[in-house]
Specification:
It is built from nine helices and 18 strands. By secondary structure, it is of the alpha/beta class. The chain has one domain: 4-Layer Sandwich (Purple Acid Phosphatase, chain A, domain 2), CATH 3.60.21.10. The longest helix is centred in the middle third of the chain and has 14 residues. The chain starts with a helix and ends with a strand. Bound molecules: fe (ii) ion. The site of fe (ii) ion has 6 residues, from loops. Fe (ii) ion (FE2) binds next to loops.
Length: 352
Amino acid sequence: MNRREFIKGGAVFSAAGALGSLKTEAAAERAPLKVCVFSDLHYTPGVYTNDTPEFLEKILARAESERCDMVIHLGDMVQNVSEKSVRELVERYNSFKIPTYHVIGNHEQDGTTHEETLQALGLKRGYYSMDCGGFRFVILDPNYFCNEPGKYIHHSKGNYFHRSIISTINWIPPEQLEWLRATLEGSPNPCVVLSHQSFERGPAGAMVRNAEAVRNLFNEMNAKTPGKVRLVANGHLHVDHLRILDNIAYWDVNSANMYYWGPRQNAYPREYLARHAGAPYTLGSCEDTLGWKEPLSAILTLYPNGRIKIEGSRSDWLFGITPKDAGFSEYDKSDRLISPVIKSADFTLNFA
Ligand SMILES: [Fe+2]
């Protein structure tokens, strides 16, 4: 089911598989599924680095030349879909010749309401699932804050920026957690879980607050049906990292575009900074970031037997200006290297 069929039909998954078993008949013969994955494009003209449609076009061209079956963006593609050029970029992505999918990021609703954002992205809901090529893709939406016990409010028009709220963001609400359980339990296929925020690590505020409950659920599913949850991928952190935890691959997909620092740098040419001075609905401007010269993306190949192949990409720092040049650390708050790279990997999870 592609995203457009998902919108039309509304149904999120097909016939449930038997608990404790995966569809293995003929699985070994099935062709692997090839997916172009990228994240955090942050297309915001006049604000961040690389603010032309060129980065998206280069990634889509890669997906086409690699003959990918689908393309997935892991959130923060844009920050204000009410702007014409931004909407055009989203429409270009939505109508690409290969089926394309969105994961909603925290910034996607900075300039518009949640409902307006969903409509522009072509989604009925921030969390959904689809079965493609023998795998179930489960897309989660942790963009809720909870500043009153039991009350979960979705990001909408930058409502989470207030100091008293920003410390309460990133929850998978109970209703979505129940939906996740039913979606994983009912899957006849091995599952890939996608979310903008990480379930594996991150400084406070960057990781999903109830990540442990979600990881416990993955482990419970795998204890019942080995190999049910195989890969959990996220964006948001703008670094490249891969970790096998409890026999599940947790993958931080680096930003296609840049690293966001917060503190301002004056390392870029003055004219360039002046052309990217920021806008009121964003957290900052180009001065808060260091960008890549070329866009980063990955070609992910999923095999029925548990093999996972990642073909990454490598760029250079925009203007050749490194974190050291700008007076920043080379490592993020979790001591992971910040660099314009998505590393390649090829491994097989063993379910025996
Ligand atoms: Fe981001």
